Amino acid sequence: xxxxxxxxxxxxxxxxxxxxxxxxxxxxxxxxxxxxxxxxxxxxxxxxxxxxxxxxxxxxxxxxxxxxxxxxxxxxxxxxxxxxxxxxxxxxxxxxxxxxxxxxxxxxxxxxxxxxxxxxxxxxxxxxxxxxxxxxxxxxxxxxxxxxxxxxxxxxxxxxxxxxxxxxxxxxxxxxxxxxxxxxxxxxxxxxxxxxxxxxxxxxxxxxxxxxxxxxxxxxxxxxxxxxxxxxxxxxxxx
Length: 239
Ligand code: HEM
Prior knowledge:
The chain is mainly α. It has nine helices and no strands. The protein has helices spanning 5-32, 47-72, 74-81, 84-114, 116-120, 124-146, 150-166, 180-195, 208-214. The longest helix has 31 residues, at 84-114. Protoporphyrin IX containing FE binds at residues 60, 63-64, 67, 91, 94-95, 98, 101, 136-137, 140-141, 143-144, 150-151, 154, 158, 162, 185-186, 189, 192.
């Protein structure tokens, strides 16, 4: 692979960011696992938060699931899109979800700007995170609007690039010709991954917690607590 800006940003940097994110996550879990949250400000202001949080999470989670689905089943997406009506349904639904997430984000920003109590607890990290999210949603929606049938070419060109990175054979030629707006979208997604362990994005990993229930949680250890002076009854004597 020839080295140029493309291969540097999309063939080398992803590994640096992913390694930092993995080490950072382990460090944060080991050193301060009880800080894995998004530090709620709900008790300071709840109404606008609700109108932001619901559309934001509904929109962004479905969009992310769609991205992930296409990464694992690009053939299914392409087969679905082979029928123009189905392609239109997918694209319009994606756009609607993108706008929904964008609306939620605008509510978050409005809330942070207008509520003095929420503004008082807003850190530079929060500002950085909102900027990263705005860039992600705006470049995603612009990509969907400007470069038609993104769901198809995502499956045909972005997905092979993602897999080439996963199997440690980065091939940036798959995405070399994408527009700068889409490249910003892809690079910013890597910045998002990089920031996860160091910011309130870490609450995104909270899904790991309940997984232990799916894969069999550890046995519960039950102890008897009895005052030292009292004799623990010998159950055999009641038989
Ligand atoms: C943190 C991860 C990511 C988030 C939160 C995210 C978010 C979004 C959003 C909000 C949209 C707009 C949806 C729409 O209006 O249709 C979008 C579209 C898109 N994203 Fe992402 N994205 C992420 C990662 C990526 C990555 C890594 C790639 C490529 C390698 C990518 C490629 C695309 C493409 C091609 C579209 C346009 C889809 C279409 O036209 O239907 N995204 N994304």
